Structures are given as C-alpha cells and as structure tokens.
Backbone:
C-alpha cells in the first residue's frame, strides 16, 4: 500500500506509460518476416514506343446499350434534366471511348470479362460533362442545364409513370412525406415469407445513398448524385429509384413530431435539387423499433435504417446501400446491372465458400476453374450453406431440391435473384483473429459459436425478404451482429442466396501477385483448403486490415474502406495533380494520359473518395483508435511526470529556506 501522494503519482505514471507502450506495440507489431517490397516494373496501360499510336474512338453501341426487359414490357425512354431523350445521342449522353493499341489495365483481383463489364475509357469531362462538371469552361460544348430548377424526384416519377406497365407496384416518390414513424406500443411484427416474383414483371430496386447532418456537398458530390440518378433511375426506365437516407444526428430537431420540423430539416441538410428524394431518420426512430438492441450507432448497426426503409417502402424488391464516397468512372447503371446479372446466374451450392475467395485469374484461371477447385476441396458436398440450421429460428429460405448435395450439379439457384450481393469477399468470423468485433453479437443462443460471416465494407444489395428477416430478428428477438456481419450472416442462417461478384479492383503500389494470392486467399492450391471448420474457404492472413499487413491493405486498393488509392486516382483524373501517383507517368498507373494531355480512366468502382474532406458516418472506418488512445495516454503520462518532477525540483530548491523560516 502506498502511503504518500508522491508514490501514488509515480505508480500512476508507470501504469499509464506501460499501457501506452502496450497499445502502440499491439497496433504496430510486425512479423519476423521482412516487410514486402512493391513491384518496381508496374503493370500499366502503356502505348507502344514505336509504330502506330493508340487510336481513341467512340465505344460501339454494343458496349453502351441498355438491355431491354423483354418483348412483353420494353423500356420506354425517359428524359433528363435538359428535357432531352436519354436514349438518343445528345448533351445528356456519356461519351465513352475504346482505345485500340493500348493494353487495358489488369486488375489486382477480379475481372471485367467475368462480371460482364465493358472495357471502356472516359475522361472526367466526358464522364461528368452531362451533369455540370466544368460547364463554365470555354471548351465545354454541352448545353447548360438549369440545375437550380432541377427536381430529381419529379424526373424519376415521370420516368416511372412512363414505364408503370412493367412493375407490379409503381408507387411514386412523395417528396417530404414522413413514411418512417415510431413503433406503436404492442405493434406486431410478422415474420417475413418469400413472395415469388410476379411473372412478366420487372423487380424494382431502390438505391439508398447514405448521408448525415453536416455532410459537405461539394461540386463533385453534386455531379456524382446527378450521374447516379440519370444512369440508373432514368436510363433504366424506372427500374431503379434513388434516395438519400440522411442521419440527422441526435434528436434535437424532433423530425417526427411535425411535418414542419421534418421539412425544415430536409431543407437545411440536403441541396435543393435533391429535397424530394431525401428520407430522414434519427436515433429515436431506431430505439423505438429496436429497443432490445444495445446500440444503434452506424459502426455497429448501420443496417437498421435500411431495414426500416424496406419495411416502410414495400414497393421495392431490392435495395442497394451505397455510401456517398463511392464513384463510378464508367456508367453507374450498367455497372450495378452487371453485378446483379452475374449474381443471378450463380448457383446456391457452395456459395458461402466461393464468397471468401479473391478471384485472381493468373492463379485460378477461369472463374469456372475456381468453382471446380472449390468443389474439389469440398468433395462435391454442399458446404455450410446447404440446409443450414441455427437454434434461434426456422429459416425462411427454400429447401434444397435434393437431399444429397452430390446430386445437384450446381443448378439450384441459377436464374434466381440474389438476396445479398456483397462488393468484396467475405470472411469466416471465427478465423479473424485481428477483427475487433469478431465476437460481437447479441441474443444468439450459441453465442460466438454461431457461424458468422463478415463482408467489408457494409454496402451491397439486399432483398426485401432478407432485410425484413433481420428487422424481425432485431425487433422481436433482440438478435444482432456487427454492421459488417449482419446481412451476410442472416442470409446464411435463413438459407438465402449470397453472391460476391468478382468486380475488378486495382492496387497501388503493386505488390508481388503470388504473395498477394497467399495473403488474401491463403497458401497452397485451392483444392487443399480443408482446414477444420474452413473446408473450401480462402483463409488468407490479410483479409482484415488490422493485421501485420495493414501497410498493404490500408492504402493500396481501389475499392476498400480505408485506402487512399481512390483519392489518388480521382485527383489525377479530375486534373488536380497525381497526389502521390506514379510520378514517372504523372498519373497513377491505372490511368492513361494521351499526348494531348487528356487523362482517361478505365471502367471501375472507387471507394472511398474523400477528396471533398467529408468525414465518415459516426466515425466508422477509423480503425486507428488504439494509436490515438495511446498517444493521448502518453501525453497525459508525460504531463503527469513533468508536473511531479517540477514539484520535486521546487521542493528541493526551497527546502533550506523553508527550514530557516520554520526555525
């Protein structure tokens, strides 16, 4: 027992310094193996030194056409913000190019050909020109649109009305309508059932873009929003409807107490041209519907507002949740449609196992070869997703058509829409030693022994069936998983279809491909992945970024949730400098700069693009809190040590004088 304040102070200082050291060591510890060195001879789209130079020409119609629904319900063309028909060549049209004589950049993982994405190129002016980008520059040849008078809700409603014959439920957007409401006392929430898609009708999809109070809508945000709406809702004949789902942060605005409060909040938080598509929520709404869930913040429960959206907007069959820092360098609608088309043609058998693999053609050959190898590792069995059961509820998904999975030749589920489309491979949670939320769950009878799946980032497309199943589990049973594990885990438990399309993702700096395959997929051949509990699954050490390889995973991917590579691409593409790109070529290696100085980007999906300095929702995505906490503790410790030293020094300097005074 310490008997004086000086001893207690010294002990406290030692404890603080020890805690600081442990936090820093835990965050930055490295393996004994040496740090990887990036490749020096990077793979870039290079023009030949001699002979014919690349030829830039408009992309053919076959690369830019929008597929018709069917001969029964053809799409009716819609008009854009200039009042022009989007199906015709005009100032509302993207100007995509193909470049003969130039090698298309090879992705780090994924494949354009496999997913069905076109290998087209665009400059920023060609990409965003229809939506107001650089329209005041002398080189701009497009007619200006009256953006201050544009009403994107009205344009979407007009387009949907033109095509209402193609949908079972063609409910229009009702601007400023408060469809969200508080839960009534004792209100019953029924368990969802799967409703078959009506024959000869097209499923409707909501694209829900997440925003929050204080979001800084810059010029690039505005053109991105306009592009997303025009290229999905308008170009696809009302098949998509775009909304902005806004977290008003706190409950001070009382948005559910009156229409006046709600309208005032919309007008304060969202740019005028998007007022009609804004949907607001706050934490009081989430607490009302999910009182048994212990937290409602975006870090832990970012799907709760989307679950309520599915509940209150039943006219949709599917819901894309995307963040506002996602960018498409090509046509947004065709990109999302390609992901959906790919997912539809995948089978259910071994879908969970396939979802863990980062597809790398140079190691796996064709995607069919990867599927064959995964099947070999499972010896033809169905995998974890075949007739799975957990203790907490009965699954609502369909039963397998045959009892023995060996009798299914990967036919079950082909042609069916996916209930969950994830944007990057998923991971089996028990194998994630470094994921801080791997044991975070609530209410499950088997606790952390319940098999769960994490798919980062927390975006993707979910069916209404899946979202209502999670809604019921949280509202009635109090069952919960972390945001990044919610939709994937519930899809698995309910026997619903989950697919991860191998979208193309680039890397900078580029690291040795064989080592990347080992880090993301695990060592050895695919067929050899038979570790207990993980048969048929990838098991690389770098699947989660807070590992010994975070210097690779945190910075180098064109689609992740913490990488700075998307900003480098976007800055260079928009003409704001390379920002750390490949200085020898003046732009990052995935871009190509022509002799006249124009910068072309390939067709890809970027995330996160933070060039507008917007901060993420609720601080989510900031995983450096151990270092921040360590630095704070260190400063406190040093301050305490300095104060203790100053007091001791002062006491020694004046001790003789005090003695004389007492004497």
Residues:
């Amino acid at each position: 027992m310490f008997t004086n304040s000086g001893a207690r102070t010294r002990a406290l200082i030692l404890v603080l310094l020890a805690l600081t050291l442990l936090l820093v060591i835990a965050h930055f510890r490295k393996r004994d193996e040496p740090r990887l060195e990036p490749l020096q001879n990077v793979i870039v789209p290079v023009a030949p030194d001699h002979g014919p130079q690349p030829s830039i020409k408009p992309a053919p119609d076959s690369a830019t056409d929008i597929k018709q629904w069917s001969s029964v319900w053809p799409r009716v063309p819609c008009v854009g913000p200039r009042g022009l028909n989007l199906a015709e060549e005009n100032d509302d049209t993207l100007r995509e190019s193909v470049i003969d004589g130039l090698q298309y950049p090879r992705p780090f993982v994924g494949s354009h050909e496999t997913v069905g994405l076109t290998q087209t190129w665009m400059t920023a002016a060609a990409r965003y020109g229809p939506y107001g980008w650089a329209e005041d520059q002398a080189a701009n040849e497009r007619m200006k649109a009256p953006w201050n008078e544009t009403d994107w809700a009205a344009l979407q409603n007009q387009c949907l009305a033109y095509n209402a014959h193609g949908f079972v439920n063609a409910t229009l957007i009702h601007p400023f309508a408060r469809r969200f409401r508080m839960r009534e006392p004792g209100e019953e929430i029924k368990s969802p059932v799967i409703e078959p898609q009506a024959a000869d009708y097209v499923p409707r999809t909501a694209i829900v873009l997440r925003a929050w109070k204080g979001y800084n809508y810059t010029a690039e945000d505005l053109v991105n929003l306009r592009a997303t709406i025009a290229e999905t809702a308008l170009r696809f004949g009302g098949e998509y409807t775009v909304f902005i789902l806004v977290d008003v942060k706190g409950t001070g605005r009382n948005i559910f107490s009156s229409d006046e409060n709600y309208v005032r909040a919309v007008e304060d938080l969202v740019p005028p041209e998007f007022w009609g598509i804004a949907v607001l929520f706050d934490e009081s709404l989430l607490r009302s519907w999910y009182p048994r869930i212990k937290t409602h913040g975006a870090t832990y429960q970012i799907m709760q507002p989307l679950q309520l959206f599915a509940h209150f907007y039943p006219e949709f069959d599917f819901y894309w949740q995307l963040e506002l820092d996602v960018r498409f360098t090509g046509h947004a609608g065709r990109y999302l449609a390609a992901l959906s088309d790919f997912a539809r043609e995948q089978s259910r058998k071994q879908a969970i196992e396939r979802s863990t693999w980062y597809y790398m053609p140079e190691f796996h050959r064709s995607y069919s070869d990867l599927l064959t190898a995964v099947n070999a590792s499972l010896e033809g069995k169905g995998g974890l997703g075949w007739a799975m059961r957990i203790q907490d509820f009965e699954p609502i998904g369909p039963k397998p058509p045959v009892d023995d999975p060996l009798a299914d030749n990967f036919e079950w589920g082909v042609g069916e829409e996916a209930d969950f489309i994830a944007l990057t491979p998923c991971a089996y949670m028990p194998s994630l030693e470094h994921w801080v939320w791997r044991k975070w769950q609530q209410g499950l009878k088997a606790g952390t022994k319940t098999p769960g799946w994490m798919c980062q980032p927390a975006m993707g497309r979910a069916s209404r069936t899946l979202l209502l199943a999670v809604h019921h589990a949280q509202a009635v049973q109090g069952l919960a998983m972390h945001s990044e594990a919610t939709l994937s885990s519930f899809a698995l438990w309910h026997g619903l279809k989950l697919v991860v399309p191998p979208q193309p993702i680039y890397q900078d700096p580029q690291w040795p491909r064989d080592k990347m395959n080992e880090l993301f997929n695990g060592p050895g051949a695919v067929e050899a992945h038979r570790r207990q509990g993980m048969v048929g699954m990838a098991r690389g050490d770098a699947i989660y970024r807070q590992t010994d390889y975070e210097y690779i995973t945190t910075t180098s991917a064109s689609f992740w949730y913490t990488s700075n590579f998307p900003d480098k691409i976007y800055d260079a593409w928009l003409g704001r400098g390379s920002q750390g790109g490949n200085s020898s070529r003046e732009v990052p290696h995935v871009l190509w700069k022509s002799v006249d100085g124009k910068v072309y980007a390939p067709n890809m999906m970027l995330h996160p693009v933070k060039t507008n300095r917007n901060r993420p929702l609720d601080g989510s995505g900031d995983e450096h809190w151990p270092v921040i906490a360590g630095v704070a503790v260190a400063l406190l410790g040093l301050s305490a040590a300095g104060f203790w030293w100053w007091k001791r020094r002062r006491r020694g300097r004046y001790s003789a004088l005090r003695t004389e005074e007492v004497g």
User: Anything to note?
Assistant: The first helix runs from residue 5 to 28.
